[in-house]
Amino acid sequence: MRITRRSFLKISGTVLVTSGFGVSIKPVSAYAKPLKIKYAKETTTICPYCSVGCSIIISTTSYGKVINTEGDPNSPINAGALCSKGSSLSQMSINNTNRLTKPLYRAPYEAEWKEVSWEWALDKIAGNVKKSRDTSFRLINDKGLSVNRTEGIASVGSAAIDNEECFLYQKFLRGLGLVYIEHQARI
Fold it and tell me: What is the pTM of this model?
């Protein structure tokens, strides 16, 4: 008798089941504990990792702690599927104890970063933007045409913002006079 791989597996399986090698074919009763998201509040958001814009459902407890993230099955973009980064969102960024929660600043020619307040950081950014805009703003170009633009600032947008936020961001940048505007989804 010639034994093939398929017939070997059939015979081996039959021998294991009938001889009682620790395999039981009796039905077992299943025990399921309650879902951890049973009383959680669900909120939809967009995955911040790439330019695809997958929709994610975030489940939070009544006191705001994130307990679960999963793909949104109603999304036409990802239909509930997530990549490895998106599916591990809560472990990588939300519930990560190593995640920065306060801004850090390193002064010019310094080696160490120091923790600063949000108000100080935002004022510093606004001051730097104003200084750069004021020094690089051009009212007219070399041909004498009115251009009203700044060439000293560039912006690369984020794929983590939705269309409405992107619209507002573009309006803000155009209001500053930026001409070098790019977006992560196009790079």
Answer: 0.60
